[in-house]
Structures are given as C-alpha cells and as structure tokens.
Design goal:
single chain, 161 residues, alpha+beta, 4-stranded antiparallel beta sheet, 5 helices, 4 strands, elongated
C-alpha cells in the first residue's frame, strides 16, 4: 500500500465522517484525487464500511463482558459462530488459539441479562463458558497504525518521549 493511502486509511479510521475536502487538505492531494483513492480503497476492501460509535450506557447496555467458549464435545462440528449469530447481544466473535475456541464480546443491560445470555449461549452452541466482566474501558475503537515506520499521521512519534 502506498504511503498516501496509508495516511488516508489512518485519517478515516480516526474520523469516518471526514470530508473529502478535509482529507485533501490533510494529504496535500486534490479533492478529486482523494475521492478516487478512497473509492479504490473501498473497492479493494481496505475500507469496508463506516459506522457510528454508540454510547452503550446511553442506550441501556452498560455491562460489557468477554465470554470464552469451548465445545462440550470436542468432536462436534466447529459451528458455534453460526449457532450464535442470532444473539444480538454478541457484538463480536473472535476465533482464538488456546484452551477456548472463541471469545465473544457481549453487551447487556444488567447482570441478570448477562446470566440469561450465558444460558442462551450454552444451549445454542453446546459449549461451556468462562466470563470476564469489564469494569471500565479506558479506550476503545483506536485507529490502527498503518504507517510502516510507526509514526503517527500527525508527524509526531508514537509513545512517550
């Protein structure tokens, strides 16, 4: 990937609503050149979409947890993601190495709702669970560092001085 495309990706990851005019100003390209590059990045699947970042507390889902799942029968088909897809409280499903097969990120309204969800997960996928409840989230949704040199797109080096 070209350096200018890396810069565009980093800027869009930080603010998906950044206008083509602002992207052009930040990259030194014309608006039409930025537009072309963004469309090319979308077509190649580098930029897969744009999303709103929701305040989960404000919408009544203040409890976040990570649920590690492991099949009860190791010989059973590895189809847990498909069996759990109908559960809207599961925000993300990650296939992992280690004792567990998957780690699920879930968001619910209360401890009782978490307990209900865990029962649904166990019944739907025939798995055992291990749950870690999140107490606070100092940061989330950080933009990836796609610069091969590790420099921040603002030109500042990463990390403490």
């Amino acid at each position: 990937m070209e350096e200018i495309d890396r810069r565009i990706v980093t800027l869009l990851a930080r603010d998906g609503r950044m206008s083509f005019t602002d992207l052009a100003r930040e990259t030194g390209l014309s608006v039409s050149a930025v537009h072309q590059r963004v469309r090319r990045l979308e077509k190649r699947g580098v930029v897969r979409g744009y999303a709103a970042i929701i305040d989960h507390d404000a919408v009544g889902l203040p409890l976040t947890a990570f649920v590690s799942i492991k099949p009860i029968d190791p010989a059973a088909p590895d189809d847990a993601p498909e069996r759990l897809a109908h559960l809207a409280a599961i925000e993300a499903c990650h296939s992992v190495a280690g004792d567990e097969s998957y780690i699920l990120k879930v968001r619910v309204a209360s401890p009782a709702a978490l307990e209900d969800l865990l029962q649904q997960i166990r019944a739907s996928a025939n798995v055992s669970t291990r749950t870690t409840v999140v107490l606070s989230t100092p940061y989330e949704h950080r933009a990836p560092n796609v610069d091969p040199d590790g420099a921040d797109p603002s030109g500042e080096p990463d990390g403490p001085a």
